[in-house]
Amino acid sequence: MGLDRNQIAWRIAQDIADGSYVNLGIGMPELVADYIPEGREIVFHSENGLLGMGPKPPKDREDHDLMNAGKKPVTLVPGGAYFHHTDSFLMIRGGHLDLCVLGAYQISEAGDLANWATDSDKRLPAVGGAMDLAAGTPRVVAMTTHCARDGTPKLLGECTFPLTAAGVVDRVYTDLAVVDVTPAGFVAREIVDGMTLDELRDRTGARLTAAENPGILKAPALGHAAG
Amino acid sequence: MGLDRNQIAWRIAQDIADGSYVNLGIGMPELVADYIPEGREIVFHSENGLLGMGPKPPKDREDHDLMNAGKKPVTLVPGGAYFHHTDSFLMIRGGHLDLCVLGAYQISEAGDLANWATDSDKRLPAVGGAMDLAAGTPRVVAMTTHCARDGTPKLLGECTFPLTAAGVVDRVYTDLAVVDVTPAGFVAREIVDGMTLDELRDRTGARLTAAENPGILKAPALGHAAG
Amino acid sequence: MIDKRVTSFEQALAGIEDGSTILVSGFGNAGSPIELLEALVDQGARDLTVVSNNAGEGEFGLAALMRAGRVRKIICSYPITSGSVVVDELHAAGKIELEVAPQGTISERMRAAAAGIGGFYTRTSAGTRLGEGKETREFDGHPHVLERPLKGDVALLRAKTGDRWGNLVYNMTARNFGPTVAMAADLTIAQVDETVDAGELDPEIIVTPGIFVDRVLRVPRRA
Amino acid sequence: MIDKRVTSFEQALAGIEDGSTILVSGFGNAGSPIELLEALVDQGARDLTVVSNNAGEGEFGLAALMRAGRVRKIICSYPITSGSVVVDELHAAGKIELEVAPQGTISERMRAAAAGIGGFYTRTSAGTRLGEGKETREFDGHPHVLERPLKGDVALLRAKTGDRWGNLVYNMTARNFGPTVAMAADLTIAQVDETVDAGELDPEIIVTPGIFVDRVLRVPRRA
User: Is residue A180 domain-resident?
Assistant: First the structure.
């Protein structure tokens, strides 16, 4: 009954206001760019020195000097600009972006984010720009499945994995719900159709309340083309 | 018997190595640029965002968007570049210049520099970039008359005027002598023709020794045209 | 759609409140947003703290704003220029507070505000009257003073060309403080010689990316 | 006369000593001075500390230098890229020391070295494993960690065009770390696609002024 990754991306995109400056984390969050509603002009920031990131180019127009933070070829839209890394992180750390959308391993009810390392990680540690984005951006939203593959909740009382930043997440968009992080803990704003609050609580590792009139989390069926 | 200001400027210019990056303080030090020996390429820095400062333009080519730190119209030589103020002071504070030539009210035998305020100053306090230049530049030389107009020495055991920076001056060029600031205090390297070391000591407010073979401070007669 | 271009001084300066801290570009008159500063007199905001390298000259621009009694305090490095009569008079009359700080420190403090830096240590002013009262700490054998970020509520600046997205380029040494003040304020307002559409500025040569700029007003350059 | 253009890898890399800290430009392969890094194998310097956003991929560039056993330690933000096999192997074998730090912190630490900043406070990494052991201090209600400058003995970088004075311009997002590493080392060596005489680059668009650059070597761009 849950949303697929493209549908979560679509749902997030609906909430991004016209004229916003937005950084999309590497991986799943990159999908958000494909679902910005018609008529909204959003400026995408890439940590490697780019504002005004456009869609990927056709194969024969790829240039490896023009890439995104995931090191994939992209394009620049009219109005875009290049700058160096230290200026790029000045923007990030200084809070000039309006929003960043980050993947997450775990989110705590205090808004702590863990998205750069797990304890079982066999890869080398790698943080990239995640800590700067999480600590610096005024509005941080997490995009994730509500539970890990083994069914373990990702929304927790406290994170068990190493933190990316403490107390920074404002909202979590999952396949099952839209959950705000508030001073009173997790508050469900929308729940996927057919799921009760109690069922959502079963999948959440912390106290969860519902907004006064929680909405239904829904997204259109999305073809492969858009994703 | 002393040098005039153009001659002091000439003497300083002889010591500036080819390829140096140099900031000339506002006022008397600006004259140094006129006496760089033929064949040396020196890059002049201006704190307001300019490397490669050239001579003043003819009246009809003046542009008030291209000025020096003294707010006088200048030119840019081929190879020059513009940058913003924070980058300009990164260069200064980070020690990227080779040399700055600053005016001075007082210099102490420990290399303390006082050049931004006097206690009798009736003007508003004004520091500009003097403290950044003095604290940041690897080699700081002072250009000054050996004594104030009333005959008071400017080279002292300790400065009585407010400091610009402590322990930064490497050498002092005056109308009477070239004096190094060393761990052992002031050491005269050159003394103007016809003056004895004792006579120079009479005009110096701190212990002064002479280098092993002190030279004669001299400069050619310089016409007004060059100054 | 993003369009940061506005068409009047009223739109450009709307919402500037009494008590604001205003960061102002310019080194002498080069890069000074003279017309915006004069329009701020009409806008009416009072009790301002102004951060500017110099403190105005003649009776125009910043000096006009000061003459109108709108500036409570000025933070600058060099208030003396030929013709800086207004600041002299107001200061002598006790009608303006003056804080003098090193030029590179003012500039770096604004950058720190822009960059989310909580504080930084610099050798500049250590051991001097301007470093007195500041926390001092030794690094690499030299005393450094702790400086805190200097953030503006508003930045007023002048650039050469601005586009629909607020990207800016400058003219020669009139660039000076423009890029720094643009980054360091909550509301950044640029006056430019000309405005263009998005995409008309080469993305390689943009000095101030539009993310830092809120409003762009074309003010024809005086002959 | 100033002429920073050199004509061989030997001239470009002369004098780099064992034990040096080398700052390297590039984000992935974009802006990476691949040929300079490979020539550094021939140059022979050992026991190097390399600062680079990534830790090399394949068997070329930085990976080749690491494979040759010249790198004692690497400071980076993201050692994992597709094909980052050499760092994986060396690390598993205990043959290389790895220090992982936030990307913006590495970048700002290099800028601090360039700017004569003794240290700065940032919220990034406060309260995390990467902030452990660092002095932490509260500003404006948030904990900040103290970070110290990160200076290089040498910077190796890639740019698009360099002139006789060492002024540099870059190509699109290959700019990335180039301007920062250029400023932060005692000896800065740039490989460029093309060299020109002084005055051929527009002074308004120069990204790295030549004051930061010591040597410029033309390395024709690979097709």
Answer: yes
Chain B residue with minimum CA distance to C75: B126
Answer yes or no: B199 catalytic: no
**D86 CB burial (10 A radius; 0-12, 13-18, 19+):** buried
Tokens 């520099």: give the residue.
B113
- With 0.95 as the threshold, say if the pTM is over it: yes
**Among B30, B47, B109, B190, which one carries the catalytic annotation?**
B47
**Number of domains composing chain A:** 1
B188 within domain boundaries: yes
Closest CA to B159 of B120, B201, B206, B107: B107
**Domains in chain C: how many in total?**
1
What does the pLDDT look like over D129-173, one tens digit per residue?
999 999 999 999 999 999 999 999 999 999 999 999 999 999 999
Q: How far is CA A136 from CA A129, B31, D57, in A?
A: 11, 48, 30
Q: Which of C66, C80, C100, C124 is the best residue to mutate to test the B interface, defined by the most B CB atoms within 10 Å of its own CB?
A: C124
Question: Are B78 and D2 in contact (CB < 8 Å)?
Answer: no
The domain of B126 spans 5-217
Strand bridging mode D185-196 / B185-192: unpaired
Per-residue pLDDT for chain C (223 aa), expressed as one digit of tens each? 999 999 999 999 999 999 999 999 999 999 999 999 999 999 999 999 999 999 999 999 999 999 999 999 999 999 998 889 999 999 999 999 999 999 999 999 999 999 999 999 999 999 999 999 999 999 999 999 999 999 999 999 999 999 999 999 999 999 999 999 999 999 999 999 999 999 999 999 999 999 999 999 999 987 6
Is C78 in Cβ contact with B127 (below 8 Å)?
yes
Residue B226 has pLDDT above 80, yes or no: no
On the 0-12 / 13-18 / 19+ scale of CB atoms within 10 A, C76 is buried
| ipTM for the assembly | 0.97
pLDDT at B122: 81
- In the chain, the amino acid numbered B28 is M
Q: What's the mean pLDDT when you consider all of chain B? A: 95
**A110 touching chain D per CB within 8 A:** no
Please report, for the domain that includes residue C196, its CATH number: 3.40.1080.10
B151 is a domain residue: yes
Identify the pLDDT of residue B225: 47
Instruction: Tell me whether strands D71-76 and D185-196 are parallel, antiparallel or unpaired.
Output: unpaired
How far, in Å, CA of B48 to CA of B187, rounded?
35
Task: With beta carbons under 8 A apart, name residues in chain D contacting B21.
Answer: 211
Domain membership of residue C26 (yes or no) is yes
Tell me the residue range of the domain where D100 lies: 5-115+151-218
A224 band by pLDDT with thresholds 50, 70 and 90: low
H/E element, C99? strand C97-100
Instruction: Report the C-alpha gap between D135 and D141 in whole angstroms.
Output: 16
Chain centroid to Cα B173, Å, comes to 8
- CB contact under 8 Å between B64 and C29, yes or no, is yes
Report the C-alpha gap between B66 and B63 in whole angstroms. 6
Nearest to B51 among D116, D201, D209 (CB): D209
CATH code, domain with A189: 3.40.1080.10
Looking at the complex, does the CB of residue B138 fall below 8 Å from at least one CB of chain D?
no
Say if residues C183 and C212 touch (Cβ distance below 8 Å): yes
| Rounded Cα distance, D77 and D82, in Å | 15
Please list the residues that pair with C154 across neighbouring strands. C22, C187
Cβ–Cβ < 8 Å for A15, A92: no
The total number of residues shown for chain D amounts to: 223
- How far is Cα B36 from Cα C220, in angstroms, rounded to an integer? 41
D35 touches C: beta carbon within 8 Å: no
